[in-house]
Amino acid sequence: MLYRSYNFFNFIRCNIHSCQQEQFYLLRIALPKRHTTTFIKQQFVYVISNASKIHHNKYGSRQLYTAIKRLASNDLKSKNGKLEKVDQNKKDKTLNDETGQTIVELNEEKLGKLKERLLNIESTDPIVNNIKNSCIKLSRKGKTKTDEKNVSVEELTVKKFPPRKKIRVDLSASSLERNFITPARATSDFLLKQSDLESLPKTKRRSPYEFEPPITVYWRKDVEAKALEIWGSQEILYKEICKKDLERKAYQQTVFTVKKRLRDYRRELVSKSRERDEGLFGSSGKVVLTAIIINASNFLFKFCAWCYTGSHSMFSECIHSAADTFNQLILAYGIYKSVQNPDSDHPYGYTNMKYVSSLISGVGIFCVGTGLSIYHGIHGILYPNSVESFFWGYCILGGSLVSEGATLLVAINSIKKGAKEKRKSFREYVLNGHDPSVNVVLMEDFASVIGVSIASCCMGLTSYTSNPKYDAVGSLLVGGLLGAVASFIIYTNVAALVGQSIPQENLNKINDELESDIMIRAIHDVKGIDMGNSLVRYKAELDFDGRELTRSYLDKLDLNAMLEEIKKLQDVDELESFLLKHGENIVDLLGGQIDRIELKLKKKYPEIRHCDLEIL
Q1: Closest by alpha carbon to 66, among 31, 92, 12, 74?
Q2: What residue ranges are annotated as transmembrane (predicted)?
Q3: What's the rounded Cα separation, in Å, for the pair 216 and 193?
């Protein structure tokens, strides 16, 4: 502990003679030095009044001066009863040897806050030890004030609190002591009634669902205790739960109940606007339904023409129309399924069903259309048939060209509209597979128009040359065309199912909006995945600004009242309770800020269906 030179002498308050004053004056000059931030001193510092009267009888005058010298500044040395000056270097060396201190002098401007640390050093001088023991005995007797003839002792000590034992959190341990439970789980898992829960303590927590108010939760330990109180034991409760499960499963297995639940579920959750825009009666659904009707009609007419003419090219076109009809039925099912809302088995919904159905359609075209067409063409080359009249075949192909062309125009108009909404070119929209169902219809109808043209040319060459091999070659060409279309459909849909990122331009816009928030210092590991149906799943790691978050929390509190509450704290247990309370509130505020940021992003970018923001 450091004392300034101008008040140190007042602190001693001693009635001493001139020789002693000189030595204490030297002590006064030596102590007020500037040291490092840690100053080490002896544990006991005693200042003795009337030192000569205490020790005159016991030690004599020569020893008295020696004792005063050692308790003081050590600037004087006694030799044969005479006082002599000690060299300054020897004095510093003596201080270092006795106390073990390393003094580092600093400028007054660079001096920071000083801390004090006790250094227990026992003196080897018997006189100093005797004086110390006498002072300790006097302090224990409680004599604070005496006459001028008695000894007055002032003892400087540092008040110390016993260190509190730190409690380490075992992160590997499992515990349900502080878990919450919702009323629904309390009813289903512990078979409690709502009236049983009314007497239990409860609290409000943020809802995990969007646009929902806070939910009421109970402490799990209280719910378990209440269940044991009502049911008596764990065994009885377990038997009742098993019984309820059997009854519930038997109830759900009834066909009528399942149908009723599905119908009610669709009525409650299916959005009418989304069903109108993206369902079977939306833009994509209308294109697919139109293609189904036209391709089914073409299949019937081509089948009749093949039966009449026996042409290999006509057979390929018949198989082509049949494959298109079957595949577009699969597409219609995929569109219908993709607009259903998420459930417990599929929490992210069925949006990928469009890609799955398109993939199945591509595989069907490749296997059925390509395989049969190539097989029939090879068979026609190896075993040519006699040439018959192709009149009705030409009529059917002409009608197919008109109908397939009409379906192709419908698909092109739908893709142009979607590309305009996405602000992309026609080619980019098709290659990226933003609307897989319409893409399949487009490619199938395009292949149909080209296939009809190829079949007509090959049949014409066969009629003109009377060589049936031209007709068989036409079947091979149509089969190769179907294989190319199927490969393109499979490739685009596999890329979408694996997980295709949204355009970098759109991702940068979302990132800029997120980084501009005052609570966020940086974002990392950003991902934007196209889920289909123009929906996006966005994920990012956030580096929150802890100071801004804490400032936002403190803005809602009365700091003066908090200061008074802090002043009333008496021990570390009360301090711990105070910090835990506000720490939990700050964590709740952090969750609220994440909800606010997610809502802001979804409002500005409606295509974001799922927004996963994680804290670093």
Answers
A1: 74
A2: 355-378, 390-415, 476-499
A3: 15
The answer to whether domain 180-269 has CATH 3.90.530 is yes
**Identity of the residue numbered 582:** H
Q: Which amino acid, 511?
A: N
**Region at 232 (left for phi over 0; alpha for psi -120 to 50; beta for the rest):** left
Q: Which of 29-33, 265-269, 561-565 has the highest mean pLDDT?
A: 561-565
What is the DSSP annotation of 267-321? HHH--HHHHHHHSTTSHHHHHHHHHHHHHHHHHHHHHHHHHHH--HHHHHHHHHH
Residue in the block written with tokens 């129309």: 321
Which of 154-163, 347-356, 369-378, 570-579 shows the lowest mean pLDDT across its residues? Answer: 154-163
Half-sphere exposure of residue 209: CA atoms within 13 angstroms, side-chain side: 4
Would the CATH topology of 180-269 be identical to that of 504-615?
Answer: no
Domain 278-499 has CATH 1.20.1510.10: yes
- Provide the pLDDT for residue 69: 39
Burial 511-545 (b: 16+ CB within 10 A, else e): beebeebebbeebeeeebbbbbbbbbbbebebebb
CB 455 within 8 A of CB 440: no
Backbone angles phi and psi of 522, in degrees to 5: -165, 155
Count of Cβ atoms closer than 10 Å to residue 510 Cβ: 22
Beta-bridge partner residues of 541:
524, 614
Q: What is the pLDDT of residues 411-433, one digit of tens each?
A: 888 888 888 877 778 888 887 76
Cα distances (angstroms) measured from residue 62 to each of 91, 133, 134, 150, 291: 21, 21, 20, 22, 124
Residue 237 contacts residue 231 (beta carbons within 8 Å): yes
Per-residue CA distances from 36 to 40, 119, 211 (Å): 10, 15, 59
Q: Where are the domains positioned within the chain?
A: 5-155, 180-269, 278-499, 504-615
Instruction: Spell out the residues 6+ positions from residue 616 whose beta carbon is closer than 8 angstroms to its own.
Output: 524, 541, 542, 543, 544
93-133: pLDDT as tens digits: 554 554 444 444 444 444 444 444 444 445 555 555 665 56
CATH homologous superfamily of 504-615 equals Cation efflux protein, cytoplasmic domain (3.30.70.1350)
For 405, the token pair is 């062309």
Q: Per-residue pLDDT for 538 more than 90?
A: yes
What letter does residue 177 receive in the DSSP assignment? Answer: T
Backbone region of residue 532 per phi and psi (left: phi > 0; alpha: psi in -120 to 50; beta: other values): left
Residue 405, CA distances (Å) to 282, 360, 443 in order = 21, 24, 12
> Quick one: tokens of 21?
């004053």
The model's pLDDT over 154-200, given as tens digits with 9 standing for 90+, comes to 444 444 445 555 556 565 656 677 788 888 888 888 888 888 888 89
List % helix, strand, coil for the chain (3-state, nearest 5).
60, 10, 25
Alpha-carbon span 494 to 358, nearest angstrom: 10
Sign of the CA dihedral with 569 first, then 572, 576, and 579 last: positive
**DSSP output for 54-71:** HHHHHHHHHHHHHHHHHH
